[in-house]
Design a protein that fits this description.
There is one protein chain. This protein is α+β, with helices and mostly antiparallel strands and 453 residues long. Helices cover 38% and strands 19% of the residues. Among the domains are: 149 residues, FAS1 domain; 158 residues, FAS1 domain (Roll), CATH 2.30.180. A seven-stranded mixed beta sheet has the order 2-1-7-6-5-4-3. A seven-stranded mixed beta sheet has the order 11-10-16-15-14-13-12. A two-stranded antiparallel sheet has the order 8-9. α8 runs antiparallel to α9 and α12 packs across α13. It binds 2-acetamido-2-deoxy-beta-D-glucopyranose (3 copies). One 2-acetamido-2-deoxy-beta-D-glucopyranose (NAG) binds next to α12. One 2-acetamido-2-deoxy-beta-D-glucopyranose binds next to loops. It comes from Glycine soja. This is Fasciclin-like arabinogalactan protein 16 isoform A. It is found in: Secreted.
């Protein structure tokens, strides 16, 4: 969305002098409120500098979020550090739908939380940057993860610092960052709002009928909004060469109560934002059949938990492991559980039962989970993985759990061991530009149509 749209929604034209004018008016108000501000804002303040800086998109959002008073109070009490996304991050790079959500007056809280999550209640200029990774409280309930890469590149959550100490003032500092940091609660508010809109748009209909002979729905009758589907998920899976035998296609229509496609898009988006899961996101974007299939299942009311291997895990996959036709899909289907599980539910289960096996979309293989080191460990032997980034995305239908390994069914591990020619070298592959899995898949059988061009 351009600045033009912005203005037309709010009828505000963004001009620096207006900004300053507003800012100097505010202290007058603050005395009628019960403000803790001890002094008038200084023209040398970091807040004045922000509103006058080249971070015009951020400055505009801060105003729209009605946060000036609160920030003024904050700098009255302590120094602050602002991580300012560059303009491009709030213009071109931001999902227009997400931006629209942020600007709706009823979502003011989300916008405020989002912005306050970019500000620390203390001054951390670059010469005070923590030597070790540090989780720091922000002015919202969220924490930011400050770190330095081995290359020296500094990061805050998934965003790189582009301009350290871009603005320095006696009461604070602004660092320019590459992208907006979206706190989980805000992402969840957004997802929830969308799903609510999708569900409430659906009219109630009669119960569906299953034909006992074909084991399919008699007619494309959607289940009531929110109700679980009638058929087991395996009946709903599209028949394909790589999946267990499925019955002939039935009359079930593609669109039901949930906008599964959008939810899948959301979670891929979340994965990309989260950082460290680009390979997985890449596969989902490019293996369109897989993403489409997941979207369809969710649309029909099924729920899914995706165990997403992180980039480091994906980089360890060998060409050997990908050499069979359809291997990328096979691997992916083995990482999808047809249940809705969160970190808490899985952890509680393994704590209570020791070992728990979950069905996967790759019949008949199951994935084993057990408690280990206070976390959940999946798989066995060579291919085991820990729950590494819990609850990356949870919207009630799709749950995404980050894991630190790629899982292989034990039966196949055995097979591989016996026929393996070269040892399973864990290659420390250089970070591939394009998803390695995709690259191999495309070079081997170029069967993904436009995806592999
Ligand atoms: C300011 O707040 C305190 C408690 O938070 C209250 O006791 C006091 O009456 C308030 N003063 C004004 C002027 O509202
Ligand atoms: C901000 O930090 C400076 C030192 O860098 C200090 O002199 C000043 O008192 C601090 N301001 C507040 C409001 O704590
Ligand atoms: C998907 O494939 C295209 C080329 O076919 C490539 O440009 C792109 O980087 C790949 N990944 C993503 C996430 O789009």
């Amino acid at each position: 969305m351009s600045a033009m749209d912005f203005s037309s929604i709010y009828g505000v034209s963004h001009k620096p002098f207006l900004t300053l004018f507003l800012l100097f008016l505010l202290p007058l108000h603050s005395h009628s409120h019960n403000s803790t501000t001890s002094a008038q804002i200084n023209s040398n303040s970091i807040l004045v500098a922000l509103l006058d800086s080249h971070y015009t998109e951020l400055a505009e959002l801060v105003e729209k979020a009605l946060l000036l008073q609160q920030l003024e109070d904050a700098v009255g009490n302590h120094n602050i550090t602002i991580f300012a996304p560059r303009n491009q991050a709030l213009e071109r790079d931001l999902d227009p739908e997400f931006k629209r959500f942020l600007l709706e007056p009823r979502n003011l809280r989300s916008l405020q939380t989002l912005l306050m999550s970019h500000i620390l209640p203390t001054r951390i200029a670059s010469h005070h940057w923590p030597a070790a990774d540090l989780l720091h409280r922000t002015l919202s309930d969220h924490h930011l993860h400050l770190a330095s890469k081995p290359s020296g590149q500094r990061t805050v959550d998934s965003a790189e610092i582009l301009r350290a100490d871009d603005v320095l003032r006696p009461d604070g500092v602004i660092h320019g960052i590459e992208r907006l940091i979206v706190p989980r609660s805000v992402q969840e508010d957004f997802n929830r709002r969308r799903n609510l809109a999708a569900i409430s748009a659906v009219l109630p209909e009669g119960a569906p009928e299953v034909d006992p002979r074909t084991h399919r729905l008699k007619k494309p009758a959607p289940v009531p909004a929110g109700a679980p589907p009638v058929l087991p998920i395996y009946d709903a899976l599209a028949p394909g060469p790589f999946i267990a035998p499925a019955p002939a296609p039935g009359p079930g229509g593609p669109k039901h109560h949930f906008n599964g496609e959008r939810q899948v898009k959301d979670f891929i988006h979340t994965l990309l934002h989260y950082g460290g899961y680009n390979e997985m996101a890449d596969i989902l974007v490019n293996l369109t059949s897989l993403a489409t299939e997941m979207g369809r299942l969710v649309s029909e009311g099924y729920v899914l938990t995706v165990l997403a291997p992180n980039d480091e895990a994906m980089a360890k996959l060998t060409t050997d492991q990908l050499s069979e036709p359809g291997a990328p899909e096979q691997i992916m289907y083995y990482h999808i559980i047809p249940e809705y599980q969160t970190e808490e539910s899985m952890y509680n289960a393994v704590r209570r039962f020791g070992k728990v096996s979950y069905d996967t979309l790759r019949l008949p293989h199951k994935v084993l989970a057990q408690e280990s080191d206070g976390s959940v460990k999946f798989g066995h032997g060579d291919s085991s993985a820990y729950l590494f980034d819990p609850d990356i995305y949870t919207d009630g239908r799709i749950s995404v759990q980050g894991i630190d390994g790629v899982l292989i069914p034990p039966e196949e591990e055995e097979e591989e061991r016996t026929r393996r020619i070269s040892p399973l070298v864990k290659v420390a592959a250089p970070k591939p530009r394009r998803g390695k899995l995709m690259e191999v898949a495309c070079s081997m059988f170029g069967s993904f149509g436009q995806v592999c061009q």
